[in-house]
Design goal:
67 residues, mainly alpha, Arc Repressor Mutant, subunit A, two-stranded antiparallel ribbon, 3 helices, 2 strands, 6% strand, globular
Length: 67
């Protein structure tokens, strides 16, 4: 999972859920938005603190966590 360096888990942040770069934005939030049909660009507009690679890594992380 070295290629998912933007994904962090810290029990002190969001109850230990996987987050983007330790911010209070969870992988689940990002993946949920993509799952409802939002585009990467729309997610970035909704969350200006995120970068494109953050969203892409969140989706990859969700894919590896479910397999």
């Amino acid at each position: 999972m070295a290629d998912l360096y933007r994904i962090a888990r810290d029990p002190k942040i969001m109850g230990g859920k996987p987050t983007i770069r330790g911010m209070r934005v969870t992988v689940g939030t990002v993946v949920g938005l993509i799952g409802t049909g939002r585009t990467v660009e729309q997610v970035l507009a909704d969350y200006p603190c995120l970068e494109r690679e953050d969203v892409l890594q969140a989706v990859r992380y969700a894919g590896t966590a479910s397999s």
